Amino acid sequence: MVQPYAISAPGPSATKEISHLLGFIQESPCAFTRNGKAHSGQDAKKHIQDKRDYFVDDIQSAEDFVRLSATQSELSRKAYTVRCPGQAEEPSKDWLLRELKRYRSNLAKPTP
Q1: How confident is the model over 54-79, as pLDDT tens digits?
Q2: How far apart are the first and last CA of the chain?
Q3: pLDDT, tens digit, for every residue of 37-60?
Q4: pTM of the model
Q5: Does residue 37 form part of some domain?
Q6: In a domain, 3, yes or no
Q7: How far apart are CA 112 and CA 93, in angstroms?
């Protein structure tokens, strides 16, 4: 008899990291480009959150979230990009993974 496999939700730390990234996107002054059209942080968050909800069964980590929800268009396969004031445009994947690294680093610092 074949046993069905269990799909589990991301653990508490991954859930916090994903929530942080969504808030980071929403509050960002950067322009998010999707399929050639720029969007505000608020609009980008909504779209990425919708994609997260669609891929919820496949997301176990913040890295899964970035890869599946915030990297490229499912229709055109074009990469999402971010242009922040005074900075060069870059792939959203790089931008978000850098923020995730910064967030984790701050959590790892001992409190005085």
Answers
A1: 999 999 999 999 999 999 999 999 99
A2: 55
A3: 999 999 999 999 999 999 999 999
A4: 0.86
A5: yes
A6: no
A7: 33
For residue 108, tell me if it sits in a domain. Answer: no
Other beta carbons within 10 Å of 75: 7
| Residue 16 included in any domain | yes
* Cβ(92)–Cβ(71) below 8 Å: yes
Residue type, 50: D
Residue 28 domain boundaries: 12-102
Q: Which two tokens stand for residue 44?
A: 């980008």
Contact 51, 68 (CB under 8 A): yes
Q: Are 47 and 54 in contact (CB under 8 A)?
A: no
Residue closest to 96 by CA, chosen among 78, 76, 56, 69: 69
In sequence order, the β-bridge partners of residue 31 are 83
Number of domains in the chain: 1
- The residues, ordered by sequence, that sit 6+ positions from 2 with a Cβ below 8 Å of its Cβ are none
Q: Are 68 and 58 in contact (CB under 8 A)?
A: yes
